[in-house]
Amino acid sequence: TEVTEKLEEVVLIWTKQIRQVLVESEQIRRETDDVGPSAELEHWKSRMSSFNSLLDEIKSSRVKKIISILQAARSKTLKQWKELDGSITIAANEAKDNVRYLYVLDKYFGPLANAPPVMMEHIPSLMNVVCMIYCTSPYYNTSEHMTSLFLKITNQMINTCKTYLCDG
């Protein structure tokens, strides 16, 4: 029982750390008003990397051994652990899925940023891809995500026009 208690303490520390990561990932992002759509892709890539690293650690042999010992001891801390494991898996899947969809948009970000303001030729294709993401993505099709994406696309268009007018 002494070993079980020590392992439960370790799992409780991990649980607290994982909860902190999840809470931080759900906080509202603070971004400047002129940030473009590439920032959205970078955000999700960073988040995917963090959650994948966390998943790799959770699935390591060391962690699996500790969890197996606690399962054999019928520890009550495992209920919290399983919930967090599921939450991390969902967050990792969401980030991976969002990166996959945003990479489809990535080919439009360059022309949107570097083209002269007569960028109308790119907009119908860009909107078709955004519509496809909205219709098919299981995670990115929320109003919060779409609003953020449209805001960043609009910011990029405004920045491109400002640059054209001021530098041209």
What is the succession of H and E elements? HHHHHH
In which range does the helix fraction lie?
over 70%
The residue-averaged pLDDT reads 85
First-to-last CA distance = 75 Å
Topology readout:
Elements: H1 2-26, H2 38-58, H3 61-72, H4 77-114, H5 123-136, H6 143-167
Helix pairs in contact: 1-3, 1-4, 2-4, 4-5, 4-6
GO cellular component, one term: axonemal dynein complex
GO molecular function: dynein intermediate chain binding; dynein light intermediate chain binding
Pfam families: DHC_N1 (PF08385)
Summarize this structure as a short list of keywords or feature phrases.
168 residues, mainly alpha, 6 helices, dynein light intermediate chain binding, DYH8 protein, Dynein_heavy_tail
Model description:
By secondary structure, the protein is mostly helical. It has one domain (1-22, 32-167). It has six helices and no strands. The chain has helices at 2-26, 38-58, 61-72, 77-114, 123-136, 143-167. The protein is elongated.
